[in-house]
Write a structure and sequence with these properties.
Layout lengths: L7 E4 L5 E4 L15 E3 L4 H11 L5 H7 L6 H9 L6 H11 L3 H5 L4 H4 L2 E3 L9 H12 E9 L6 E12 L11 E4 L14 E5 L9 E6 L9 E10 L3 E7 L2 E7 L3 E8 L5
Parallel strand pairs: 5-7
Antiparallel strand pairs: 1-2, 3-4, 5-6, 6-10, 7-8, 8-13, 9-10, 9-13, 10-11, 11-12
């Protein structure tokens, strides 16, 4: 009986990732074949592979570039295998690394272990979602779903497309932008319940701007929480935000934040 072993990522002389995988034996491929990526490898190993192929030598480099969207300690826990990614988290990280989020999350079981993707990952791996949606994204903007689940505008974030709206001029040339329907009355009169808030995740987040914050799911749950607030202050491990109705201030731990994206005001260029 042949012994199976887990795929291990390593760099070849060209800087690309070679998947050394003895699970390929008997599949007509060699034990060291860059075109054989085994779906049975653990998610944290696949995450490391994707990060290296995107050109980041370590988690710190990746987290530093996307510091407004990724918390380094949390990301390290995904690579170490001590914490599981939720679907929205995998979609976010997959987009940032230019890889398929479903591949990052595939279960490590015997069924998936027999599935192979005939694909060689490179640093310039294309974002398939962007390619498929490129024509649509020029004119229309996706509205992603949130459902009110608590006071102060707290909402469940499902990340599913619930509507398509015309893209405003200030989001032309911003392929990662999206919109949400405002939940609750906590940000009135700046943002009224039920109206559309436009989100630009690639625009720098600055003190004094409005932000859409996603929080990591509570322990034992898989759905992140989200809310729209005004950014007051950022320190080493804390973020302070406020709401207008009624006036209230919140102090959040950075480690609890999944992402923080800029909300464009109606007149913001």
């Amino acid at each position: 009986m042949q012994q199976r072993s887990e795929a291990v990522p390593s760099r070849d002389d060209t800087g690309c990732i070679e998947i050394v995988n003895t699970n390929c034996i008997g599949q007509g491929l060699g034990a060291s074949d860059t075109n054989c990526i085994n779906m049975g490898t653990k998610p944290n190993t696949r995450l490391q592979t994707a990060r290296l192929n995107a050109g980041f030598n370590n988690p710190a480099e990746f987290a530093k570039k996307y510091s407004d969207q990724i918390v380094e300690s949390t990301y390290r826990s995904y690579e170490n295998g001590t914490r599981n990614m939720s679907v929205p988290t995998a979609k976010l990280i997959g987009r940032l690394l230019g890889t398929d989020w479903a591949w990052l999350m595939a279960d490590n079981d015997e069924k998936s272990a027999s599935v192979h993707i005939q694909r060689k990952f490179t640093r310039s791996a294309p974002d398939l979602t962007k390619q498929q949606d490129s024509a649509l994204s020029k004119d229309k903007l996706k509205v992603l779903g949130m459902a009110e689940c608590g006071p102060d505008g707290l909402a469940l974030w499902n990340g599913e497309v619930v509507d398509l709206v015309d893209r405003p001029a200030q989001l032309n040339g911003a392929p990662n932008s999206y919109a949400v329907f405002v939940v609750g009355t906590s940000m009135q009169p700046a943002h009224w319940s039920g109206r559309i808030a436009y989100i630009h995740p690639d625009k720098p987040v600055e003190i004094g701007c409005d932000v859409l914050i996603q929080m990591h799911p509570p322990e034992g749950e898989s759905t992140p929480r989200a809310f729209l607030k005004h950014l007051v202050k950022r320190s080493g491990d804390r973020v302070i935000v406020e709401q207008y109705n009624p006036p209230k201030t919140f102090t959040l731990k950075r480690s609890e934040i999944l992402s923080m994206h800029r909300v464009l005001g109606s007149l913001e260029p």
